[in-house]
Design a protein that fits this description.
Order of helices and strands: EEEEE
Number of helices: 0
Structural class: mainly beta
Largest sheet: 5 strands, antiparallel
Strand order of the largest sheet: 3-2-1-4-5
Helix content: under 10%
């Protein structure tokens, strides 16, 4: 089973763990894959490695991914 449909919150944390950018969107299942398109305005984000966290709204647990802002 994959991730459920519904509202998701995306946070981009800088290398110090401080919140840089946050956005949310609704995810839907398309061709058996849960898909979310979340717009980010990265103009204020610092260049370098950051952590992207993804959390289903209303849940405490989140998934984290290392990303690089250029």
């Amino acid at each position: 089973t994959g991730s459920p449909e519904g509202q998701y919150v995306f946070q981009l944390l800088d290398s110090n763990g401080s919140l840089g950018v946050e956005t949310s969107c609704n995810a839907a299942i398309r061709d058996y894959v849960t898909t979310a398109e979340a717009p980010f305005d990265l103009r204020a984000a610092s260049a370098g490695r950051s952590t992207l966290t993804v959390r289903h709204a209303g849940e405490v647990a989140s998934a984290s991914y290392t990303v690089e802002v250029r």
